[in-house]
């Protein structure tokens, strides 16, 4: 199994970017009373302890969500803050939700939630914190391919790999094209890291050629520590919701001085 452990990075600046956009899109979808489908290809364990040894070792959450809360980066009532409040009401002030718990906090029990996670330890932890999602102990790309087009048809797919497998950079554009062809009304959101070596460049070129009307939003920040290769965070969204430009503009202002 892969060695990536998100507990060391939970709540960092990349999470803040990704989760603010995710929460905004989920909030947009729930503005209509019609049920929806939400899917994730790489769900992780769903809940992280910012007071634990892993988070304290890197200090990335201190520069991310902890600083954001202290300095009021997000406005009162922002859907990410609402999700965080729900999760901390259950798990305490040091809890930080991964995307599965953000989704459960903002969606409704009559919505259809499908969470895939291949790592046995991670899905075992996820099983203990989700309330009404259906878990799939399998490759997330295979799950999405099997379920699309889902029922209900309106909804969203989050693709959030660790990119430890370098082949993901080549396989993601054709995979997303295949899903979009099967599910032409679905919001398909891909998170990707911005690294010093620019390895995401060819992937993004291929995606923008296939989806010229998609949203590509990137923010930049200083490396978390010396020798750390990530210098930013990106989201590529096929069928972006109407009005999302206001949220990306807000994030641009937040990240500009970082």
Short description:
With 258 residues, the chain is of the alpha/beta class. The protein is built from ten helices and nine strands. Strand 4, helix 6 and strand 5 form a beta-alpha-beta unit.
Structural write-up:
- The protein has 258 residues and is an alpha/beta fold.
- It has a single domain (6-255), classed as Rossmann fold (3-Layer(aba) Sandwich).
- It is built from 10 helices and 9 strands.
- It has helices at 13-29, 53-58, 60-71, 79-91, 99-106, 120-127, 140-147, 168-182, 201-210, 244-255, and strands at 37-40, 47-49, 95-97, 112-116, 134-136, 155-159, 187-195, 215-220, 230-238.
- It has a 7-stranded mixed beta sheet with strand order 5-4-1-6-7-9-8, sandwiched between helices. Strands 2-3 form a two-stranded antiparallel sheet.
- β6, α8 (168-182) and β7 (187-195) form a beta-alpha-beta unit.
- The protein starts with 12 loop residues before the first helix and ends with a helix.
- The model has no long low-confidence stretch (mean pLDDT 95).
- This is Ribosomal RNA large subunit methyltransferase J.
- It catalyses: adenosine(2030) in 23S rRNA + S-adenosyl-L-methionine = N(6)-methyladenosine(2030) in 23S rRNA + S-adenosyl-L-homocysteine + H(+).
- InterPro entries: RlmJ, SAM-dependent_MTases_sf.
- The record marks 4 as: Interaction with substrate rRNA.
- Its EC number is 2.1.1.266.
Could you say which overall geometry the principal axes of the C-alpha atoms support? globular
Structural class assignment: alpha/beta
Number of helices: 10
Q: Would you list the SSEs in sequence order as H and E?
A: HEEHHHEHEHEHEHEHEEH
| CATH homology superfamily name | Vaccinia Virus protein VP39
What's the mean pLDDT score?
Answer: 95
| Count of the separate structural domains | 1
Keywords: Methyltransferase, RNA-binding, rRNA processing, S-adenosyl-L-methionine, Transferase
Pfam family, one: RsmJ
InterPro entries: RlmJ (IPR007473), SAM-dependent_MTases_sf (IPR029063)
Active site: 160
